[in-house]
Design a protein that fits this description.
By secondary structure, the protein is an alpha/beta fold. It contains nine helices and 17 strands. The structure holds nicotinamide-adenine-dinucleotide.
Length: 367
Amino acid sequence: MTPTNIGLIGCGNISNAYFEGCQNYTDIIKITACADINVPHAQATAEKHGLAFGGSADDLLARPDVDIIVNLTIPGAHTDINRQALAAGKHVYCEKPFALTAADTAAVVADAAAADLRVGSAPDTFMGAGLQSARQAIDDGLIGTPVSALGFMLCPGHESWHPNPDFYYKFGGGPMFDMGPYYVTALVNLLGPVARVSGAAQTTFAERTITSEPRDGEKIPVEIPTHFSTTMEFVGGPIGTLVMSFDTPHTDLPNIVIHGTKGTLNVCDPNRFDDPCFFKPAGADKFESIPMTHATGRARGTGVADLATAVISGRPHRASGHLAHHVIEIMEGAVKSPAEGRHIPIESTCERPAPLPCSLGQSELDA
Ligand SMILES: NC(=O)c1ccc[n+]([C@@H]2O[C@H](COP(=O)([O-])OP(=O)(O)OC[C@H]3O[C@@H](n4cnc5c(N)ncnc54)[C@H](O)[C@@H]3O)[C@@H](O)[C@H]2O)c1
């Protein structure tokens, strides 16, 4: 099969993970071009990776030899770039969060449907061996009927390592929109769609001090809540609680724990592909790892390769715009509920993405 040509827009921090991760799927996708608002940086990136093109987003979008745009710009630029890419006749896969609002997400998904093009969104970690094994265990009835899901992401924020952390403290950032996509997507994949959301949120610090280079010592304002305690009521019955914070030291709490009528599943970090999951049956006194039912070794780029394969075969792609829309509406509900003092009903819904067949190798996707 000839690999599908990929154009990256946004050559920042995370682009390195895509250049590396897409190497896993050389039979399926090939990065041939890149662009950035900083054109010399795009040119240098293209040269470094031996690409056919490095330049502006407009020039990249005009190229007939690019089929899928991978949008790795900052969250505030996602919607404009996604719409421009669709208008140029390209399929789109966008880093998380797909958009700053559920309304923008729905508009882009509608654009794609009208143009008969695909849109997809990170995260794709739910296609990794860890979360696929957890899904298999739940679907096989290991924990019985799911009752409760707990998710914890508590950290001191990203200004200690990211060179330009401003966007994490603006509308569309914060722990919910930055890290929520991993947690909420994992939970929707495991337990299905959510009916309503409620909770509390606060902004603990009005400004943050960057301690990474090159802006060490610079202060940046905080425009959004940075600590959340959110309740998610799943359509299928279980109640989820998420605690997401940029205002705390790192924590030893588990990432995700799902309690069922027959036992407890300690699910791996939803920001990783291959970590193991652990199960403790009701009445037992310790957790034991569950079998990895899927091949390890997947990385970023899996969602892009899945989308490229799905375009050719005509099947649905897993990290879809519909999934992103539901996830963003849930995260938006977590922000709206404390601001408006009410439960927020979730209007969108989505199918759980199809599980990956266990037989696939780490560089394979199902036709
Ligand atoms: N850094 C990470 O570890 C990480 C991990 C997972 C996901 N993400 C997500 O990836 C996205 C990018 O994050 P990052 O850390 O790489 O940010 P970054 O600031 O390092 O890079 C963003 C790049 O996009 C370019 N850009 C901004 N606006 C543009 C526009 N309108 N047109 C063209 N280029 C534009 C910038 O010049 C920059 O090179 C974000 O949505 C983020 O949430 C980042």
